Structures are given as C-alpha cells and as structure tokens.
C-alpha cells in the first residue's frame, strides 16, 4: 500500500481519466478513487426503485447494469445461459450488459480509478484485484441487505439462511459482508473406482488401513500408490494441515491463521507432517517432485498412480483426458488414531470464486438482486450441473444430474455435516504460503526432517507477526 493513499488514489484517477493508466497485474494500487468516488465532481446518483415483495432490494426496473465475468476455468457461459436469463424472469425490463475478460485488474482498474465501475464483478484469476485494497477504499458494496432479503425461492426464508455460514465468514472484511464466495470446494483423496474395484482395493478409514493399502498397491506392481503436484506443494500441505486438524481439532488451524506462538510446532501438526513424510519416503510416484498438477492428474487418468489429493474441481479440469469408465471418486482423510479430536468423515471444505458489487457503481442494487438470483436453487443447481462444481447454496445440488466425482464430493460434504475445516493464512499472508509450500516440498522429498520443517514454517510466521507493516487478520 502507498504511504499516502489519498494522494496516490488521486494520482491514479487523474492518470485513468487521461487514458494513461497501465495497471499492474493483481493490484489496485490503493484502490483507485478518493472518498466519494464517481469522478471529479463527486459520487454519481445511484439508481433506486420502490421495494415490494417482488423487488425487495428496491432496484430500478428501468435502469441497466453491467455484469463482468472472469473468463477462466469456469468460462462465462454460466452467466449468459443461467444467471442472466434467470434474473430476467423477474425483471424483464432491466437491460444487462455482459462483459467477459481474462484480465480483470487490467480491464477494470482504469474504470474504478475513473469512478465508473461496473455493478457486478467476478474478481478471479491471476490478474484479479486486491480485495484488501478494495475493502480499504470502500469500493465493496455492503451486502448485508442481500443477506436479510427474502430468498429468491421462498419469501419466508432469508438469503442468509440458504447459504453456508462459512461463505458469510469468508466474505466478511473488517466486519462487513461484502464478497460472495460462490463455488464450494471439497478436498479429499481422489481415486478411480474402476481401478479400485478391478483390484479389490478397499477405501481406508484409518491411517493403518491407508498405509496398508499403499503397501498393497506398491507390491502389486500395477501402479504407484500416491502422488501430488510436486511443483505446487500446496496440494500436499493442504492435506497435512487437514490431518492435523483431525488430530487436534479446529483450533490447530485457527492458531496457525492467527500467527499464534508455536502454532507450527504443535504436536498435531508434527504428527500429520511426519505421517505424510513417511508416505513421501515410501509410496510416491517416481518423479513426483518435478511434476505439476496436470502431469500428476494425467498420470492418474492413465492408471499410473492410484491416489492423489486434490479439490473437487479435479474432475471438470480433467474432463477432456479422463477415460470414459474411469469413474472419479474421493474419500476423506482416514482417522489417524482413536483419539482424534474430529471424527472420520471430516473434510476440508472452503467456499471460493469471489464476486462483488461495486459500491460506487451507478446501480448497485441491481448487482445485489443479480446475486439473489445466483443464490436461488435453480441458479446454483444448474451452475453445479454445467461446471461440475458445488456451490454455497444449501441443497442446490440435490436432485441434479451430477458427475460421479461431484456426486462423491457432495456425499462427502453431506456426511461431514458440521465437521469441516479450512485455513485462511494462504489468502492473508502470501509470503507464509510460499514458505510453507517450499518447506513442504523439501519435507516430502526427504530433505527436511519434521522438526526442521516446523522450524522453517514457524520462523516465517513469526517474521510476519513481528512486521508492523503487514495488516493482521484473526479468526
């Protein structure tokens, strides 16, 4: 962030209005406009309309608004073919301008700087805008009225009661709910049901059963037991931390997120790291360390490896290379011991794929109403069918035609109930994420012992905790 944010924002706005602003990827440079927004003459008047049962948020039925979608892994067809037509069923006179881009920040920063942002933004991808900077500058619309509005499907049920509580927590910045986390990822160990059935391999529920299965697969000589994206060690540190939470409870991950003293050296974390270090030493696909996520997933599709940790986007990401009879399936991490704090079936599940309404746009109420349509069971259920991805809308996938992998993820999430875990330091402290990923790669390759790994992670966490220039967050 700039030392003098107001001056910096004024400079950015002047540059944008002069057509000179070339934004840097992934930043908003303190977020673009001085307080008040709306250009040099102050905030533009925002469109409003009378509230009613059919229009609880009071959008103006005669005013247009713009929807900007990140054209990445999900594409933009879901907005064009599902959400926008659904919105029009209740507001047929409202004109929607649809924009798709692969570079959100590069495309939109000049508009935020100039005071004419679009109403609705899917802020995703490597070129996304900095949510912390957007929040700090008041660019994010307070979505509390949306949460308290009647849901699209049932006027007697508020929107807040139709979505996962974690989506509200993760979309809250400085006490204000302002980001819609829409897609809901479930992590687990993925496998081919065909491969397991053909070989009589059973899904393990305990760590003893898991290591025995790895040994059985290794001795069969048919494939390697386990792999992960070696070039992207997040995939395996996610798994280690989920096991640590199962062993010691959710406080283990809260302490890590909160930069608590000694959090990385806690006994549950050490046990989990040691367990996977053993897997790394004995059961990895040869060359794992040098493979990226696509290479390991392709090896999986070719039956060269039996299991890999990943999120529920896996099946959709691999749809063009997966054998027709592969039958993706997943299982939650096995219980480490009988004294685990969390039961078998606990999963790491975290909402993501962020959307927001621009507070200084011309028609933010239309943007919120568009979100209300997205959060309907039809809007969310059809999204899941199209993209093989769960959403934060409770029960939206029930009765839908789901792919085998997505059905497995949905079942795992339903069975987990309240026993879900997640961590947030990856989004809060990028340098800590980078250090933990690097250290975990070394751990899995046998070049760090568990204690050395914990020391390295803790050292970076302590550095961040002691750096007064880094904004701190807590759970």
Number of helices: 19
Number of strands: 12
Range of strand content:
5-15%
Please tell me what the overall shape is: globular
Describe the 3D structure:
With 475 residues, the protein is an alpha/beta fold. It contains 19 helices and twelve strands. The strands form two sheets. Strands 1, 2, 3, 6, 7, 8, 9, 10, 11 and 12 form a ten-stranded mixed beta sheet that branches. It has a two-stranded antiparallel sheet with strand order 4-5. The longest helix is centred in the middle third of the chain and has 16 residues. The radius of gyration is 23 Å and the shape is globular.
SSE map:
Blueprint: H1 5-17, E1 65-70, H2 77-90, E2 96-101, H3 104-114, E3 120-122, H4 131-136, H5 144-148, H6 165-170, E4 172-173, E5 176-177, E6 180-192, H7 193-199, H8 207-220, E7 224-226, H9 234-248, H10 251-257, H11 267-282, H12 293-301, E8 305-311, H13 314-317, E9 328-331, E10 347-357, H14 364-374, H15 377-387, E11 390-391, H16 404-416, E12 420-421, H17 425-428, H18 430-444, H19 450-465
Parallel strand pairs: 1-2, 1-3, 7-8, 10-12
Antiparallel strand pairs: 3-10, 4-5, 6-8, 6-9, 6-10, 6-11
Helix pairs in contact: 1-3, 2-14, 2-15, 9-11, 18-19
Short summary:
With 475 residues, this protein is α/β, with parallel strands linked by helices. The protein is built from 19 helices and 12 strands. The model is unreliable at 1-42 (pLDDT under 50).
């Amino acid at each position: 962030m700039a030392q003098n944010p107001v001056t910096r924002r004024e400079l950015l706005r002047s540059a944008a209005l002069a057509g000179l602003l070339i934004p840097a990827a992934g930043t908003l440079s303190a977020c673009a406009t001085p307080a008040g927004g709306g250009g040099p003459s102050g905030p533009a008047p925002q469109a409003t309309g009378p509230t009613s049962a059919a229009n609880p948020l009071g959008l103006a039925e005669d005013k247009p608004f713009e929807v900007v979608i990140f054209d990445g892994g999900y594409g933009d067809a879901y907005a064009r073919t599902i959400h926008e037509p659904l919105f029009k069923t209740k507001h047929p006179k409202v004109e929607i301008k649809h924009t798709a881009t692969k570079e959100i920040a590069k495309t939109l920063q000049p508009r935020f700087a100039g005071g004419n942002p679009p109403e609705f933004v899917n802020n995703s991808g490597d070129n996304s805008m900095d949510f912390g900077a957007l929040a700090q500058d008041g660019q994010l619309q307070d979505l509390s009225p949306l949460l308290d509005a009647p849901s699209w499907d049932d006027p007697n049920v508020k929107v807040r009661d139709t979505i996962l509580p974690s989506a509200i927590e993760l979309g809250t910045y400085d006490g204000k709910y302002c980001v819609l986390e829409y897609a809901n990822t479930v992590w687990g160990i993925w496998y081919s049901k065909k491969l397991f059935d053909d070989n009589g391999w059973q899904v393990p529920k305990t760590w003893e059963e898991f290591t025995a299965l790895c040994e059985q697969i290794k001795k069969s000589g048919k494939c390697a037991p386990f792999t992960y994206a070696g070039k992207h060690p997040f995939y395996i540190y996610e798994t280690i931390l989920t096991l640590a939470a199962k062993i010691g409870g959710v406080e283990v991950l809260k302490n890590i997120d909160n930069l608590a003293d000694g959090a990385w050296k806690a006994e549950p974390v050490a046990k989990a790291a040691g367990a996977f270090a053993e897997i790394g030493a004995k059961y990895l696909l040869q060359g794992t360390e040098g493979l990226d996520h696509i290479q390991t997933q392709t090896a999986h599709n070719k039956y060269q490896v039996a299991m890999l940790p990943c999120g529920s986007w896996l099946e959709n990401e691999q749809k063009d290379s997966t054998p027709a009879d592969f039958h993706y399936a997943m299982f939650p991490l096995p219980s480490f011991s009988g004294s685990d704090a969390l039961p078998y079936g606990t999963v790491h599940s975290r909402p993501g794929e962020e959307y927001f309404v621009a507070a200084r746009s011309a028609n933010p109420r239309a943007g919120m109403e568009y979100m209300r349509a997205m959060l309907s069971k039809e809007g969310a259920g059809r999204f899941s069918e199209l993209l093989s991805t769960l959403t934060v809308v409770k029960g939206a996938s029930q009765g839908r035609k789901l792919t085998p992998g997505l059905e497995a993820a949905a079942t795992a999430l339903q069975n987990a109930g309240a026993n879900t875990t997640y961590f947030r330091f990856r989004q809060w402290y990028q340098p800590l994420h980078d250090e933990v990923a690097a250290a975990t790669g070394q751990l899995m390759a046998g070049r760090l012992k568990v204690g050395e790994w914990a020391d390295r992670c803790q050292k970076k966490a302590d550095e961040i905790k002691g750096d007064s220039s880094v904004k701190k967050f807590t759970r």
